[in-house]
Structure formats: C-alpha cells, structure tokens
Amino acid sequence: MKKRSHTCLLATTMASILLLMMVLYGSISSQQHQESTPFRHDYQLLGRPLFKLDISWPKYPELFRGAVFAVAVNHYGEVVYVAQRGDTVPKVLVFTTSGDFLMAWNTSTLEMPHGIFLADPESSNPTIWITDVGNGPYGHCVKQYSPSGNLLQVLGTPGTAGSRLSPLQFDQPAEVFVHGSGEIYLVDGDGGANNRLIKLSKDLEVLWVHGERGPGLAQFYIPHSVTVDGYQRVWVADRGNKRIQVFDAVTGDWLATWGSCFPEDAPYSVRLTPDKKYMVVVQLNVNRVSLLEAPPVGVVGQCKVVGMIRLPDDVKPHLVDVDQKTGALYVAEIGAGQAQKYVPIHQDGGAFY
Length: 353
Hints:
- This protein has one helix and 29 strands.
- The longest helix is centred in the first third of the chain and has 35 residues, at about 1-35.
- The chain is mainly β.
- The protein is about 10% helix and about 40% strand.
C-alpha cells in the first residue's frame, strides 16, 4: 500500500512539473513571439474606423535599413518613394503600390532627407522634391530629382545654413508642396533659425513669405508640413506651437488656426484625402494618425477628430502621404524604421474616398 501511494505521489508530482513546464514554455514562447512581431502587425483603430493596415505592404520590409522619415506616392504611376537616413543605406527606396521593390537611389547628393513630394504625377516625366536638413556640404537645400534619382536642380546654397534675410537661403527646410499649377510652397525651419512659409511661382520667383518666429497669428515655431486644398487654402503643421494654421493661397493672408485637437502632441504632418473631406494628421510623440473633418469652402471653423489610428509606443510616425487614386495612406515611421500602408475601409457600401 505504501509503495502504491509513493508511486501515485511520484506520478502526480511529475505531472505537475510537466504541466508547469508547459505553462512556462508557452509563456516564454508567447513573449518571444510578441517581441519578434514587428510593429507593422500591431495597431488600434479608434473612433470611426476609416482605414485598416495592409500587412502585405511592402513585400520585403527588410529592405528598410535606416530611419524612415518621409514617403511620397505617384498615384498615376502606382509608385511609392520612401526616404530614409543612414550612413551606409540608400537614401530613397522605390516600391510599387502593390509592394514590389523597384530600385534604390544610392545617391551621394542627399545627406539627411526630411520631406519628400512627388510633383506633376500625370506627366510623362514626374519629378521628386526632397528637403535636405544635413549640416554637410549638400545640406540646407531643397532638391529636385528624376524618378531614377538623377539630381535636376537645387534650391538654396548647399552646405550653408541660411538666415531670415534671404527667402531662398534655407536652414533645415522641412517640407515642400508643389501645386498642379507649378507653384511651390515651402516650410523652412525644422529646428533651424528660420521659421517660414514661402510661396514661389513656377519660375521660382518669391510671391509671398511669412517668416516671423512666435506664437501669434501667421507666426511659426518649427513649421513642419504643408499642403494645399481644393479651395485655395494652405494648411501648415505649426509643430512647435501645437497647431495648424490656414492661409489664403493667393494672397497669403492668414485665415484661421486649429489648436484644440492637439492638446497632447503637435501635428507633424498634414495631408488631405482625395475627396477633400478629411485631413490626415500625424502626431509623432503620441504615435497617432488622426482623421479630422476638412471644412468646406468658405468655412474653417474648429477642428474635429472623427477617427484615429493608434500605433504602438516608439513607432514615431513622422510624415504621411495619401494615394489620390485609392485613398491609401503611407506613413513614414522613424522609430520603427519602416513605412506602412493603410487602406480605406468601405463605408455604407462604398469607399469614403
């Protein structure tokens, strides 16, 4: 009887140890899986769900080997340009909107790309504009490239930080937006001495400038992103002041300020959906992509958040671009070292775009 009891006790003990090992192994495996799962598979939709993550884009995410700062989409050519930083990495990676890898720019003319914009996508020769905030011999400039990475022209003096005295002497220019008319809008001052919004004609003549640092109307502190809507209004992410400022695209007159939507963190990037009904705003420090109602013509009013994509901590989304054909969002993420694609969710039988 004692021998049988001892055998039963031994069997029970072994079973308990085996069960404990299985539980521990499962916990460790789950933790390892969570740690190895990239940021791209973890996101949360809040408010009205307008987008969902496309986890298949791009097909080879391991090609991202630097800090990804900017992204631009050619919706006619179905091509996506991603700008990244790093001493030994190509500064621009080119993908299709389906996720296939096309080419890399191993150009030595780019030091620290910040913003990237694709101009004139309907033409047979679209060009890519990139702002360079580097402090070396090629920095402090706005550069125009061919789709294959050939340098076409440079605005500013390479390697020389500008002052507020000359409109075309830049100090860490943040982003450029080229209108379909050929007119160019620049925000100059990603932490540099300049804090300016500049409008140039297609012949690069200065049409108007707002260039005063401060928290007042038409003043800036780190203007970081710029876009133009269909009603001749210019929208600027005034990062240091935690607000968006709106201007008349023709006269340059100040129209409005949005600040109530950004109590926690500043707007870093601003773009519009193809139907111009939503403003897409990126906030880096709270790891958030917000959808704001875009006001109709003649009315600016107050900002209103209608949807949100909340990313994991330390993803650090920086700039965004919107495919004007499909409505897909492409987000450049510094912390995660990648770009991600979000596709529209159909609403009431049809896509919102």
